[in-house]
Structure formats: C-alpha cells, structure tokens
C-alpha cells in the first residue's frame, strides 16, 4: 500500500462541505481528523483511513500518499456522550442517502419506533448481509445504543424473508424483548423507508412526510454497526462496506468487501480484487437501479455501496421511449444510457405514481405497488418509439410487460447491463407464486 494515493472528498454527505484541517506536507495518522464541519452547519467530519503524507489540499478534496506499513491502530475520538460520539465520528446514512446521523437521531420523540433497514434493497448488493453474518452481536449493540439515545420503545429489523441465514444470525445474537424481526417480500424497492414503514407498521406515509410524523426512525444496517464502533471502540468512520460485481473475471462476478478504506481509488480496488476483470460498458457506483456512472479515478466515499462493471452496451438503431419511475433511474440517467446505446429517444413519460417534490426529485405514491402502465406505453408508442427503456420497480416492470409484447415493442431495463454482467435475472415479469422477478 505504501506510495498509493488516497483521495478524501470533502463532501461525502448531505449538508455543507467539510473544511480542511491539514496542509500539504503534513504527516497524518490513521483516524486523524482531515476536515471538519463549519460551526452551526449541517455536515460530517472526514478522517484519514491511512497513515501517510498530505500531497495536496483543495476546497474539494485532500489527497494523501500512504507511507510505510499500515497498522490497525487509529486515533480514537475523545467524547463520552453517545450522541456527540456519533457526530464526532462522522457517521452518515450509509444506505446511500448520506444524511448526518446525529441530526436524524434528534428527530424522534420518546417511546417511538426504531426501524433497521436490512432489506439490501438493490439486487446484486450483498455487503449488508455479509456484515450481519459476521457481526450480528455488534449490530444488536448498535441498535441498543440508538434506542437508549432516542428513548425508543421498540426496534424492528426489516429484512427480506429469503435471507434465512442472516435472520438466524440475528436471532442467535439475542434480540431481547424490545427488538423483533419483520420479514419483507423480495421486491424492489422494499428498502425505501416508506415501504419499510408500510410493511412493518401498516402505515403508508405521504410522499411529503418523514418517518418522524409517526414517531419512527429508519437507519441502515451498516449505520448502526458504525454507531457501535464509534461508541464502544471510539472509532471514527474511516472505512466502508461495499459490493464489487460485474465483469470481474470469468469465474467470480460478485465480491463482498468489508472495511475498504475511505479514499481508496476505484482503479486500485479493481487491480487488487479483480486483476483479470473483463472489458466493460461502464462502472456504476451504487446499485443497478439508482447507481450512477463513475470514472475509474473516483474514490470510495461514505455513501459508496457498490462498484458494478457492466457488460458493454448494445448499440441500438431503433428509437427509444423512456419510462421513468420514481424508484429507479432518473430522467437524466436514462438519457445518458440512451446515448451510450448509440441511439435517441422520442418521448419521456413518468409513472403515474411518481410525484415531483419541491426539490425537483420524485417520490412514489406507494413504493413497489404499481397502478398500471398501459397508458404510458401507448403514449410512448404514439411518440414514435420503436422500443422502450424503462427504469421501473418490480411491479411497474411487470405491468409494462403486460402490454409491450402485445404491441410488439421490445423492452430494455436500465438495470439490464449490470444484472446481466453478474448473471442475475433481468427485471421483467413477476413470478405468480412468490411476487418476485
């Protein structure tokens, strides 16, 4: 590792960019503070995951060259108050949202419900399940710490029923009287927090409502594990769990990587864990549904959940109609994929359940429950589309497939290229017996 460059983005979270606390030429230790949130601002501190020398500092990043053998020791956070320790450690929502956790914990009144998102929502990604198998007891302790902080009456671990081994690991760790397991269907997007609340508590929140409206709080599995580390080990957030998948080799196309150092560059990860990776179409940071195209020189940040190397894009001569779903790829991402397929689009339609919010983002009225897409498919056909590119959830995709084949319109899904690269089934029709694709 000596001589390798690590790149620490100063914006790995919702809120204000962190301000550098080091200068070029400084020698830093593992766990040392690199950048801090300005006072009275929402944000997250950034710590070094390695020992080395600072080679450059800008308003966007700090670059460090690793020096010498790397030890497991780290500089420990000093506070004793659990909530302050979570803030100081720089923990954010690790399901991909990146909202600073200390602020989220302030939003619940006493005797509320803590929900743990263990859905592993995106297909291909498995790192949360691996963390549960390896550290179920520590995850339970992290949950208990959060329950103490927010004075929660009970906690629910929401996990897909198919993850039998992980469920058993949690039970063996000892759930206690205030923590229970809620099994979920194997549908996308069962990890959306309103879907978890709906299927766990029987309440469907409005698209404008936060879980705090019903005195509930949703945290990701890895988030509560990092909370355990911060409180019991005084460990700042310096590493990330992720899934590396796709065109990695001819024999191994999914790898789970636990505790990858923050700041490590994707190209170095590929060379370390997949030195014989195959030619690919693009690299995706995140999951197949909501991930974004990323370059090889991008670093691992707190919200990185996956690195997926897709199959090369098919070159399509037919014009596409784009059907956008609030739960999947957004319009910009779908247009990017269209361009990479070497074609153009004739029209854009949104699922009727997709509601545009004030911030410009879309949310689904009822995540994973589709009202039907016949009207939208017919509109796209009328616009001149010879084929469809859809980014819909499991149920929406199922409804598209009830009409598109009858109209002799071929269908691509934005997830196809990632799913095929990892030998996963593509998103099309639901199985009648299980409700899964």
Describe this structure in words.
By secondary structure, this protein is an alpha/beta fold. The protein folds into four domains: 5-66, RNA polymerase II/Efflux pump adaptor protein, barrel-sandwich hybrid domain (OB fold (Dihydrolipoamide Acetyltransferase, E2P)), CATH 2.40.50.100; 82-232, NADH-ubiquinone oxidoreductase 51kDa subunit (Rossmann fold); 239-309, Roll (Ubiquitin-like (UB roll)); 320-421, Rossmann fold (3-Layer(aba) Sandwich). Helix content is 24%, strand content 23%. The strands form six sheets. The protein has a five-stranded mixed β-sheet with strand order 13-12-16-14-15. A four-stranded antiparallel β-sheet has the order 1-7-6-3, with no helix packed on it. It has a four-stranded parallel β-sheet with strand order 10-9-8-11, sandwiched between helices. The longest helix has 24 residues, at 127-150.
């Amino acid at each position: 590792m000596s001589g390798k460059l690590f790149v620490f983005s100063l914006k790995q979270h919702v809120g204000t960019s962190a301000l550098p606390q080091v200068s070029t030429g400084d020698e830093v230790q593992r766990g040392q503070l690199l950048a801090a949130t300005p006072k009275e601002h929402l944000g997250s501190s950034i710590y070094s995951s390695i020992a080395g020398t600072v080679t450059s500092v800008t308003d966007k990043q700090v670059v460090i060259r690793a020096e010498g053998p790397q030890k497991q020791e780290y500089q420990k956070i000093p506070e004793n108050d659990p909530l302050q320790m979570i803030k100081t450690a720089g923990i954010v929502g690790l399901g991909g949202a990146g909202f600073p956790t200390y602020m989220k914990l302030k939003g619940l009144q006493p005797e509320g419900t803590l929900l743990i998102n263990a859905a592993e929502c995106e297909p291909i990604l498995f790192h949360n399940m691996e963390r549960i198998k390896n550290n179920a007891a520590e995850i339970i302790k992290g949950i208990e710490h959060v329950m103490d902080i927010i004075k929660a009456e009970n906690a629910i671990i929401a996990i897909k029923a198919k993850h039998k081994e992980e469920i058993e690991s949690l039970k063996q760790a000892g759930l206690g009287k205030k923590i229970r397991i809620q099994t979920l269907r194997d549908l996308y997007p069962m990890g959306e927090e309103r879907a978890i609340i709906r299927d766990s508590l029987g309440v469907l929140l409005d698209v404008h409502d936060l879980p705090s409206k019903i005195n509930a709080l949703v945290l990701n599995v890895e988030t509560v594990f990092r909370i355990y580390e911060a409180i019991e080990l005084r460990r700042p957030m310096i590493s990330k769990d992720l899934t590396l998948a796709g065109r990695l080799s001819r024999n191994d196309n999914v790898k789970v990587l636990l505790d990858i150092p923050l700041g490590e560059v994707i190209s170095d990860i590929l060379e370390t864990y997949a030195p014989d990776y195959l030619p690919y179409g693009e690299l995706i940071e995140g999951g197949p549904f909501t991930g974004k195209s990323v370059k090889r020189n991008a670093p691992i940040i707190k919200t990185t959940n996956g690195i997926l190397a897709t199959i090369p894009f098919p070159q399509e001569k037919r014009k596409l109609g784009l059907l956008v779903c609030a739960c999947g790829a957004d319009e910009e991402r779908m247009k990017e994929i269209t361009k990479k397929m070497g074609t153009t689009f004739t029209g854009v339609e949104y699922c009727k359940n997709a509601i545009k919010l004030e911030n410009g983002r879309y949310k689904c009225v009822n995540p994973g429950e589709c009202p039907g897409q016949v009207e939208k498919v017919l509109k796209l056909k009328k616009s001149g589309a010879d084929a469809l590119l859809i980014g819909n959830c499991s149920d929406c995709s199922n409804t598209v497939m009830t009409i598109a084949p009858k109209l002799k319109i071929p269908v691509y899904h934005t997830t196809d290229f990632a799913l095929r690269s990892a030998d996963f089934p593509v998103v099309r029709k639901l199985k009648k017996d299980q409700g899964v694709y």
